[in-house]
User: What shape does this take?
Amino acid sequence: MPDTILVVEDELALRETLVYSLKKEGYTVDAVSDGHLAVETARKLKPDLILLDLMLPGLDGFEVCRILRKEMITPILMLTARDDEVDRVVGLEVGADDYLTKPFSMRELLARVKAQFRRSRLLQEELRKTGGPKEKPQKLVFEDLIINMARREVTLNEEVLSLQPQEYNLLLFFAEHKGQMLSREFILERLWGWDYVGDSRTVDVHVRWLRKKIEQDTSQPKRIITVRGGGYRFEG
Assistant: This one.
């Protein structure tokens, strides 16, 4: 069956253009124009991807993203007319997987959509491989921080952490390369894909987000160390 996309956009002309272009690519598309309808429709439709405008009547895109991220792991691509780094960072921090600044070309949007579906399929395949009953539990232990790869679960001080899929992927990637300096570009290529059309600041946002959950003091991180002019190093 074709992938289902929910378009949340209050500007009629753009909403119709998005629906037309996505359907032309073979996707099943539903569309709504305000934040409250977005939450309601997403819960009922359970789409494979959500295109979410930032400026919406009712609930804005930030709040919609925050609500839905607590309930589902569906990839969310945020659309914003504000070319402001603060908005992009906040969007990522409330759970968006990617952002696109208006005006954008339909070619770029379709490339982002396809990239999200590729990553989603890779994640599902990984879950299928590691989640079967025949798989033996695999754990990486760093004192009070434990990564259970078989269950895709992370605990800190025996408490399960609530990690977004890409947060987990990033932490696991760091753990598998413990002690090595990893450049932002290398991380971006390996976790977001060589054809990712964003920039390396995406890595910084996810690192900052992850530090809030695993570091005792984010101003003086002990686990994920920033390497000046290089990238990051995981110390465990």
Q: What stands out?
A: Confidence is low (pLDDT under 50) at residues 132-137. Residues 156 and 214 are 7 Å apart (CA to CA). The two ends are 42 Å apart (CA to CA). The longest strand covers residues 4-8.
